[in-house]
């Protein structure tokens, strides 16, 4: 019996020793993988901001009025701000802003800033080239005149010429701003790229000139912003990842038209409530995993299931009612603005 105990104790010690060795090997492998893995820089976090209401100025020219009677030009100037809340601002590679007029009768005629290039150096770049030309000429003559004499003669000449050519070229350039229209000229986009001459942080002015009906007094715009960074990507250098996004509903009104300003402000509030109600309704249409588990558990108990069903039905009814109310309020506010745009300003 004692011999069996000794064998059992020996096997236990061997098992523990092998387990400890295995743990050390696994730990060494994990440390090696962690050390060999490339260091991923933290992705910066960018926040945006934009005004909810902006004034529009009448900039109609005589040429436009003659070419397109019944319409006018309005210029809307917006300041779109960006702030790097966390991370290194130098890791942000570009910012993209999109501005879209939500009225179907508004079309983009002009915008600023336009696509812009910046020189990488000041002035021109001097280029010098040296050229060496070497020419060698050798000739020999050998003859004999019997019976008087014989002999030979040799002629050689070396020419060494060096030419230096110097000229200047414009300095290489990089794109710092890319802009254009989108959504069939209902909106514009402006893409700002990082450069050594400026920062992407701060306020950036975007001016959009819309063609609108003659009686237009106000309307809505959608402003979208996006920031991208080359740091923090899982695939390493060269991968671009989104490090900030925002979407705003903004209103524009003719300068000095305070009545329409109030109507636009009410429409913005109604649109936001409508969008929130839609999001909540969509979320309820697709319950999360925890809610699905809760429903499945409730089905196991008859009394609890009946009670919870009533509660869920009441909640769904309330959400549907809120969605209808938000849509009704939004439609009413939109109708007020449409009515105002149908008659000239007093």
- Percent helix among the residues? 25-40%
Average pLDDT, all residues: 79
Radius of gyration: 39 Å
Element-level helix/strand string: HEEHEEEEEEEEEEEHHH
User: Which oligomerization state do the chains in this entry correspond to?
Assistant: single chain
- Please work out how many helical segments DSSP would assign: 5
The biggest sheet, with number of strands, parallel, antiparallel or mixed sense and barrel status, is: 11 strands, mixed
The overall strand count is 13
Distance between the termini: 112 Å
The rough form would be described as flat
Overall structural class, as computed from helix and strand content, comes to alpha+beta
| Percent in strands | 35-45%
- List low-pLDDT spans: none
Structure description:
- This protein is α+β, with helices and mostly antiparallel strands.
- Among the domains are: 124-169, no CATH class; 258-346.
- The chain has five helices and 13 strands.
- It has helices spanning 2-36, 62-67, 258-285, 289-298, 302-341; strands at 45-49, 53-58, 71-86, 92-101, 107-112, 116-119, 124-145, 149-170, 173-182, 187-193, 202-213, 218-229, 241-254.
- The strands form two sheets. Strands 1, 2, 3, 4, 5, 6, 9, 10, 11, 12 and 13 form an eleven-stranded mixed sheet that branches.
- Strand 9 (173-182) and strand 10 form a beta hairpin.
- The longest helix has 40 residues, at 302-341.
- The mean pLDDT is 79.
